[in-house]
């Protein structure tokens, strides 16, 4: 707290005596003062719990408690709590008014994933019986403040029952005593002060600054700085999110793995051995089954399988794309180790985010340079926040590796496609190559490869050397298409069969029937589902809905809000018809409808509808989310430029500023909860709880 006050004094002095003429910096200083005041008052409310009232301090030794399902240990110095079995400590004749309760606990090691439930049932002067779950909390190793809990009762407490249990079978701690009415320490979070100050200042700039409402084309330097800053921040967040999942001191070991997964090891070894089927051979019992895809028969007969592998003609195959092997295969040949999947996801996600930002910047500067800086920055934040790749980075497994690599290839191809005002054949050729690789990462991304080919045809009329241009645009993607079709045929006897229906998972895909209602489940949850805001952890969540449809539909964990509500700007499609009418002639209307409608509306909807068979998984949003957002931004930009009134344009900038803050908060909290679930990462989940909650 002292450090925060010193920092506050330095900032205020610098602003008021060094920078006197900047009204923005003066507002920044005032808002910073408000943020500091909030931090040391409102957000530290638990620390002031004992200020008013008579709350005598008292320690309740565990040796004096009535123990239920536990026993005091002299050697341990307390009661050992192990696993999920609940123990209870009952104290009678307490006779004091209770404002806070602290569990004095010690842990056998420094594992920050130790988490324990803490409940308390108490009496007070308003009734004889227990008031159940007066305390409903958790304490976590590594977080001192989690051992405290506030209590709000009437008068003195006579009897209290404290109940404890671990949330995991491996959780172990020693409960030494219960301490009543000990002051809760201050828990200053500097990042909270910084975020409140920066977010508020950004909104203020959108409201008051005339320069922020000047056009992008007249202030490219500011836009370049903003582009670099926002993109760098996004990349840093992805890196921190992935690296935080790697145990301390094991980063270097990630590059010396002797085991991998289906992408990094099994496919690599198969290709090194010169074959398309995997080296593992199916169990004979599996091959003897009349229907090896029958999940119930496999389960009841205890027949071993390789999970999520394709079984065809007595051999195991991988239906995942082989494009990432461009990195994984040489790495294994050179080092003898398998490339770490989590690092691969991190690299693919970061590179994809960078290309997406560059694509957005080029899109704006080529066709929408008349939008304001406020709209430019806000839209960039919205696009990067709701692009969908965050969920892959939040759970970097081989499933997400396929998503992230495809995301990188599509964004790179899109950027190179519109990179220059004049047609540059090297850019076109590499763009074609990237779209071809995208299909070899994920077959569903073939939708965007088709769109790219339509774009190449559209540019053909502008090319001076049509033959050379055609070779550059169509040969790379065609060659990769032939390779993919050969690979499909070599595995499954058909150039268009990617092998998903032979997968050994929770479904027998060979007998899966299409029902339009199941398709609607995906459409609703991916597009229309809205987040729910609640005042307690996890603060923002989106319930998954089966739309009351009777039937089986697979749903992965960690559902997120649909695209409409994760970005808000997607509601701009409501005005798409009105926007088309503003175009000068039918040719331009048809051209815009095809070149924008196909990649931003039609193809994403096809991908969403096609997900009915695989079910719902939030990672799929990286396949279509940013494309939908881009289309809606184009509509907003077009209408902004067409407007002649400064007041209307200012309203655009202000609205986009608020939407940017909303998007970061809504998506940020959901991504964080997805990446660091309370069950697997209780310490990191508790960090978010402490950051947001006031009464915790």
Concise account of the structure shown:
By secondary structure, the protein is an alpha+beta fold.
> Which outline best applies?
globular
Largest sheet properties: 6 strands, antiparallel
Category by helix and strand content: alpha+beta
- Helical content, roughly? 40-55%
Please give the radius of gyration in angstroms: 29 Å
Helical segment tally?
A: 22
What does it look like?
The chain has 696 residues and is an alpha+beta fold. The chain has 22 helices and 15 strands. It folds into 4 domains: 2-49; 58-180, Jelly Rolls; 210-247 and 341-692, no CATH class; 256-335, no CATH class. The strands form 4 sheets. Strands 1, 3, 4, 6, 9 and 11 form a 6-stranded antiparallel β-sheet that branches. Strands 2-5-10-7-8 form a 5-stranded antiparallel β-sheet. A two-stranded antiparallel ribbon has the order 12-13. Strand 12 and strand 13 (315-317) form a beta hairpin. It is globular.
Main traits of this protein?
696 residues; Jelly Rolls; 22 helices; 15 strands; globular; 4 domains; 6-stranded antiparallel β-sheet; alpha+beta; 5-stranded antiparallel β-sheet
What's the SSE blueprint?
Layout: H1 2-17, H2 23-40, E1 58-61, E2 66-68, E3 72-73, E4 78-82, E5 87-91, E6 100-106, E7 115-124, E8 127-140, E9 148-150, E10 160-166, E11 172-180, H3 190-208, H4 220-243, H5 262-272, H6 284-287, H7 295-300, E12 310-312, E13 315-317, H8 325-335, H9 341-367, H10 373-385, H11 390-394, H12 398-417, H13 425-441, H14 446-460, H15 466-492, H16 516-528, E14 532-533, E15 540-541, H17 563-567, H18 576-581, H19 586-610, H20 625-642, H21 646-675, H22 682-692
Helix pairs in contact: 1-2, 2-3, 3-21, 4-9, 4-10, 5-8, 9-10, 9-12, 10-20, 10-21, 12-13, 12-14, 13-14, 13-15, 14-15, 14-19, 16-19, 19-20
